[in-house]
Fold this sequence. Notes:
The complex is a heterotrimer of chains A (988), B (82) and C (209).
Chain A: H1 16-19, H2 31-36, H3 44-47, E1 68-74, E2 83-89, E3 92-98, E4 132-135, E5 138-141, H4 144-162, E6 167-170, H5 177-190, E7 195-196, H6 204-214, E8 231-235, H7 239-242, H8 246-255, E9 259-263, E10 276-278, H9 285-298, H10 304-310, E11 311-312, H11 314-324, H12 327-334, H13 338-350, E12 354-358, H14 360-363, H15 368-381, E13 391-394, H16 401-407, E14 413-414, E15 418-419, H17 423-433, H18 437-443, H19 447-451, H20 460-465, E16 479-483, H21 493-502, E17 505-510, H22 514-523, E18 528-532, E19 541-544, E20 550-553, H23 566-577, H24 580-583, E21 596-599, E22 602-605, H25 607-618, H26 629-637, E23 707-708, E24 711-712, H27 735-741, H28 749-755, H29 767-774, E25 785-786, H30 808-813, E26 820-823, E27 826-828, H31 831-839, H32 842-845, E28 848-853, H33 869-872, E29 879-882, H34 884-889, E30 897-905, E31 911-920, E32 928-932, E33 937-939, E34 942-943, E35 958-959, E36 981-987
Parallel strand pairs in A: 6-7, 6-16, 8-9, 8-12, 9-10, 11-25, 12-13, 16-17, 17-18, 28-32, 29-31, 33-35
Antiparallel strand pairs in A: 1-2, 2-3, 4-5, 4-18, 14-15, 19-20, 21-22, 23-24, 26-27, 28-36, 30-31, 30-36, 33-34
Chain B: H1 2-14, H2 27-31, H3 60-73, H4 76-81
Chain C: E1 4-8, H1 18-27, E2 37-41, E3 50-54, H2 63-67, E4 73-75, E5 81-83, H3 93-97, H4 133-139, H5 151-155, E6 161-165, H6 166-180, H7 184-187, H8 189-193
Antiparallel strand pairs in C: 1-6, 2-3, 4-5
Amino acid sequence: MLLTRKASSQVAPQSRISRAATGALAKTMDRRTFLKRSGIGVGAGAVASQLPFSMIDRAEAKEDEGKLEVKRTVCTHCSVGCAIDAVVQNGVWVRQEPVFDSPINLGAHCAKGASVREHGMTHDSHRLKYPMKLDGGKWKRISWDQAYDEISKKMLEIREKSGPDSLFVVGSSKHNNEQSELLCKWVRLWGSNNTDHQARICHSTTVAGVAQTWGYGAMTNSYNDEQNSKSLLFLGSNAAEAHPVSMLHTLHAKENGAKVIVADPRYTRTAAKADKYVRFRSGSDVPLLFGVLHHIFKNGWEDKKYIHDRVYGMDEVKKEVLAKWTPDKVTEATGTPEEDVYYIAKTLAENRPGFIIWAMGQTQHTNANAIVRASNILMLALGNVGRSGGGCNIYRGHDNVQGATDVGPNPDTLPGYYPVAVPGSWVHWARVWNVDLDWLKKRYASEAMMAKPGMTVSRWIDGVTEKNEAIDQDPNLRMIFFWGHAPNSQTRGSEMIEAMKKLDLMVVLDPYPSASAAMFAKVRKDGAYLLPIATQFETEGSATCSNRSLQWREKVIDPLFESRTDHMVMYQLAEKLGFGKEFIGQKGTGAPNIELVKGKGGMEPSMASVLKKEINGGCWTIGYTGQSPERLQAHMRNMHVFDVKTLKAKGGKDAKTGYDLTGDYYGLPWPCYGTDKIKHPGSPNLYDTSKAVMDGGGCFRALFGIEKDGVNLLAEDGSYPKGGEITTGYPQFDHVLLKKLGWWDELTDEEKKEAEGKTWANDISGGIQRVAMKHGCMPFGNAKARAVVWNFPDPIPQHREPLFSPRPDLVAKYPTHDDVKVFWRLPTLFKSVQQQAVKDDMAKKFPLILTSGRLVEYEGGGEETRSNPWLAELQQENFVEINPKTAADRGIKNGDFVWVSTPGRNGDGSNTKLKVKAQVTERVGPDTCFIPFHFSGWWQGEDMLPYYPEGAAPIVRGEAVNTATTYGYDRVTMMQETKTTLCNVAKA
Amino acid sequence: MRTVLAVVLLAVGLAACGEREQVIEPQSEKRYQGKTDSKPWDNESPVAELRGGKWTKGNMTSWEEQIKQRQLSQNEYKRIEQ
Amino acid sequence: MARMKFLCDAERCIECNGCVTACKNENEVPWGVNRRRVVTINDGVVGAEKSISVACMHCSDAPCMAVCPVDCFYRTDDGVVLHDKDLCIGCGYCFYACPFGAPQFPQAGAFGLRGKMDKCTFCAGGPEADRSEAEFKKYGRNRLAEGKLPACAEMCSTKALLGGDGDVIADVYRERVLRRGKGSEVWGWGTAYGPGRPGAQPPQPARKS
């Protein structure tokens, strides 16, 4: 075998940097390079005490001593949801085995999944081990009781003076479903809508844009379904690094003839596996998508019957796309040659069904709500949505961001997307939570505040620092809880640290102190508490993967050190704050709605009971009602019966409970309508009219009315889920419709009592859903998808330049939105920021586009993964990818330290800058630079190690790119514009 | 005649001399004097919790069979077509 | 007789480092020692980037074995190359000899003393009692003795890294190559019989005139 060599690096251990090829020639492999990455590097100082092969006395159990147990759990790192068999001996996690039976990952793991056992190791752990308080600038250890006392006292004091809206709870997408739902409730019982979680800065634009197009804002099919696909367009996804195991399905599809196209400003590792790579300018997604659509319409490749039957408004879109997005305009905006755009169009048209796949590349822009809709329109035009092998495969991020979005702490919705602005939502949830509605109303500052969506996590800093008259609530934010959320994933970090100066109270609840602790301690002497929280391996509960399947995690080990589970802390703090009884749904001396069980550190709500009573009992809108703990657990025990291509169980009976798995889809992907008794199998592919409703089939949701401007919004005759008794379009089911159809009497007497006056979405007996589905009808109606979303700022998706754009000429052609005086309670600027940037000649001072993204070894804010030595060793320093020309122009060599400066501002007015190593590579074009966002622990050149609690700093620290990123928010969801800002790079 | 026979015999006799040894048998293997190592199949099958295989202790073939089965079960083509 | 081998399918390897981490996890290898590494060639070069996971290849005629001055290497019946750390003197000669850089040396001590050589064992442990604490401490996990395959191959995210009996690997890989219609040239058809450039196509059959 011919050995190929890479360019060797003259610098000490770097993985990516030393791999940069200085030219296109491959040279023989340099063994020094191979070894160099294993060298001492930055982190070894922290592990210098580690002798080879753990000669130290491990607390770990010895083999052959004590019984072995296996707990089946799911990796907590991303939304693929790889199952893991954790072998435990005497309460110590000793082995980790792959689960080949899992239909989702078939035993495969990426680096993070393969490393999860480290979470069970206590030796040299960098976790937060006990509660801490910032006192005189130092982190001091305190007891849980003292922590609770002081925190609750302070909270009640501030509440007394400023009202409940002075608190912002940043919740977590890493909470399991039950914890997410409890946290949503917790904040509401406190009396505020000021809560949010990572979905805001991840896929909020997807959920909004996609739901408004056809009903639900989630992945339409599954990773597995890609095996049935003929074409896969990755536009805004680096799946090879962000969802590595999904590539198993993708590459399997590619092997069997599927065409893989990757469109990305960067030549990513995913692009390396593509049949065709298309480069385009970051932020110009709409011109690219509509450029593709232009060719499709021009050549008549659209699926006319499908559009006629199932889509509203495509004619308008067609007219606009043909007129406005001609090849010259597309190339002008994107920088992509026309033949590449045409190639995409032709390939997608000739290879159906096909998917468009996206993640942050599409979602993190100021016009992302339009970008995702352009993707939807493209798939609708091709007739790809609602069939196996085709649709919008939206790759969610964190392991339970889907679940947290569905049932968790959102500022504008209660669990199940019941809007806070609709009084009926509160009636419904007060009932499910067994809480007195009047009492609940009094908890809020006013009924108006109760109906008003809260602030978003992307803007909490403005809630603290903005002028009080300008915000749409009485107090400024004075207290913040970082409950399982890192700070360095939000933009404008330099302004966040200024906000921290003003806070009265910050509480970080996390297994790791996180950069929040370091940032706060850098500018303050007191006012913060750190509470050690157990990981998801130290509790049980369900999590929803990206394909909407729910998986039940068993508890592997007890919480380590002094950590306590999230739900225990919620309950204990609720008791201190005065709503403990309401939190578990106890009225007076009656039985609580939620069972309490004993945990390490006290009593905690039982996860199974939360799932059964609250999630299954209340989330009728999205079909989270059929996934009972018993069914989910049976699935986890019998993964081998599920088919990998279809996710369906052809047969099988659970040995433990006798549950018959036949017909179920793995994880009962939502919507799984009705109670668990009617045994809906889950919906693997959404909107699929080729299947019966009770076999997971469906159609587009009737969410937008029956007609618009004289045009029928319901599906045309002949388009309906297979076997349905109504063969035309129909509106959503409610008691009126049931009575009209003569099906009302099919409800039992009990069901009738509940269903009277209700719709399919708030009938808690589930009777309306049951009867509708009995007749083969979708409870949410049968309607057309909307290509024109008239209630959005841009009904037809428009291209709008990013706020910090490198092209003032295009800013003039495609300006951003007007400023909004009040948007999610805060004044939000668009045009004024963009115009100011043009006026200040930002594009000349900062001529390079700065974009950020993922690395496979780390995840999210990164403190958890950078504290794992097995992962930390692989990426020891943060870096910026620079094109060879750009580097040569600035005299920068591979491996040099450089300063990346941006238009962001520090408190003293200076521009923010980041000190990172330069990686010279052709991955990025001459106009773009890339920095991964997982690092934190350096602040504009300064190592923040002294500000971390002792023994709890991550092994690897580096600049957080978001320290320097800039202002910019999506016009519908307040998503931050992380993917496109400006920078310049200079040698350090 | 005898010369011809002698030449032929010589040619036949020397025919194999130029051939190289086909079987790899590194000399150093014969010189190893470290601790002896037992064979994987000379162990009891592990308990079910360790998610290992099942074979008859001491029986190489049964161990190899289950290893090959395990390998095949990890080939996603087999799992997909099941 | 099973002949244990590794094969990394470069068409599927996405450099996720799952194999690297699986090995560290399963064998509790310390910082600084990496039995398995992923190597990427033409990193960032459009159309040319390829990754491949490399560890000890358990050669039939192992150079490490040939040069070791204390003959601490041996080969098991399935072809796994192992060594006895009690005999190893840490001279590093095997490191020079190995074309893959498989021998690793833990960097203990202030002067970077070389320490005993460590390398991939195909998860077959070493010359200590199978599945014992002593074997784990010195050599890492013995998965073969549990009827399992190496952790790296079992956990590969895209099933690029195949480990186990060579015949089965060949079958699995062959099926993939057939379906793709390409890929074998990376391993040397074109390289062995063609002009010798990596990725070269096999020579075309002579045309009939």
